[in-house]
Amino acid sequence: MQLKNLTQHIINKNSFLCVGLDTELKRLPKHLQQQPNAVLQFNKAIIDATKDYCVSYKINTAFYEAMGAKGWDIMEATLHYIPATHFSIADAKRGDIGNTAAQYARTFFEVYPFDAVTVAPYMGEDSIRPFLEYNQKVTIVLGLTSNKGSEDFEQLIVQETGGNSGAYSQKKLYEKVIEKVANWGTTEQLMFVVGATKTVEMKQIRSIVPEHFFLVPGVGAQGGNLNEVADFGWNKNIGLLVNASRSIIYADDTENFQITAAAAAATYQLIMQQILSQKLL
Amino acid sequence: MQLKNLTQHIINKNSFLCVGLDTELKRLPKHLQQQPNAVLQFNKAIIDATKDYCVSYKINTAFYEAMGAKGWDIMEATLHYIPATHFSIADAKRGDIGNTAAQYARTFFEVYPFDAVTVAPYMGEDSIRPFLEYNQKVTIVLGLTSNKGSEDFEQLIVQETGGNSGAYSQKKLYEKVIEKVANWGTTEQLMFVVGATKTVEMKQIRSIVPEHFFLVPGVGAQGGNLNEVADFGWNKNIGLLVNASRSIIYADDTENFQITAAAAAATYQLIMQQILSQKLL
């Protein structure tokens, strides 16, 4: 799916939920752990259970890499099981110089045909450009993340150099990142990661990039509030894709896990439906 | 190999060269491209040809990921072919929140038992801590990279907040990153990436972290000068591991590629031997 179709898809499904498949063998329901291909079975069961309540799936590549080569086969099989109606994201947070970045882009846009991939901005424009050359795909750049560590560097105040007057503006690093990266591609090619725990900052970020979609992790297990996210991050295209991972997929470790995961996803969806009905009045 | 043994290894080998295995099927010698397992064959041939001239190998994970699951098997077989006497680096530039970073650490320290992995700092302390929990392993954090894009964010001037006096110091982001990250682990656990094209800045970085080893990419294909790197980056433990990838492994695409790669590595080694003999007088 392309990003330009996401808004309509959200309206049709009454949901802007992305389900994160951070799947780890040891956290699966006990009865599944012993079975062959347990992780893939689990992912398929979660997708079956939640697909009516979400518009997107996000595969956290770290959990698949930690299984070695077979993890990549499981990731591939999971990707192919995600319905074509759903926006598929590789949460890989890659970032390297140009010729290496081109390999990463090829990996997540061609070898594994995801709709989108997450990318880290530290190394600058030539580390992001190779992803943007795939103009039917979506590059999701880290802006302000939901973790404590975002204070260490993302929230530092940076000073703009240049200008003969000696005048300078002050911004936080994540604001500078978002402002600058937004110029490198279209609103249909670029999204930003903005943590759900950072609602006050989200309002400010929305003023910098009024038209971009945000990928918002950090609701559920990380504690972000869905109504606040909607109040601060909303835009005319809705502009929000909210991810929940552990609070859905690990909601229950018994044989009833599918029903409980469906219920957890449905709970998010219901809140989102209320938000959508208010905002789209 | 642990980092504390690297200095002695460099002295023994008269070399501080790391050979980067950024191996890509289409760039291999034509006669190899058609053969089964060409990439692994090539890597083994390059390791055989260069191991006397270098102390380390760096596997650029992007090139293996782009081959899909079988790429990870090739990476694993290559890793196991690297002599135990050589310092093995996964150039993966990972970075994510804590529970995800723990998966990445497990991938590159346990599932694939590299000596070291490169990590991106953008997301802060909790994205780096899980790597440092492996105290026999080495975490190599991006400082100042050799690419043009390093100007976009790494070189921004950041302002320290805090202090009642209103006084503040100004540093560049990469300086702040290096200064802060250096407090999170020991000099035997942490290294920094400092690009070879950034020799003036390298001198300044050396004053911030006088005791750390630097991984220095960007000589050869990217144009950095080895003598300048030694002048500005040297420390009492030598403190430099200089990587060359394309200028060695793709020095020749004929059937003589092994001899030419050996010669290219030997050329670096000879310059390094001269530098070592001067500096260790």
Question: What keywords describe this structure?
Answer:
alpha/beta; globular; 281 residues; homodimer; 8-stranded parallel barrel; 17% strand; two-stranded antiparallel ribbon
Structural write-up:
The structure is a homodimer of 281-residue chains. Chain A has a single domain (3-279), classed as Alpha-Beta Barrel (TIM Barrel). The radius of gyration of chain A is 19 Å and the shape is globular. Chain A is built from twelve helices and ten strands. The first copy, chain A, has 281 residues and is α/β, with parallel strands linked by helices. The two termini of chain A are 26 Å apart. Chain A has helices at residues 6-13, 30-33, 38-50, 61-65, 69-81, 98-111, 125-132, 173-181, 199-208, 226-233, 246-249, 257-279; strands at residues 17-21, 56-60, 87-94, 116-119, 138-144, 157-159, 170-172, 190-194, 213-216, 240-244. An eight-stranded parallel beta barrel of chain A has the order 1-2-3-4-5-8-9-10, surrounded by seven helices. Strand 6 of chain A pairs antiparallel with strand 6 (157-159) of chain B, so a sheet runs across the interface.
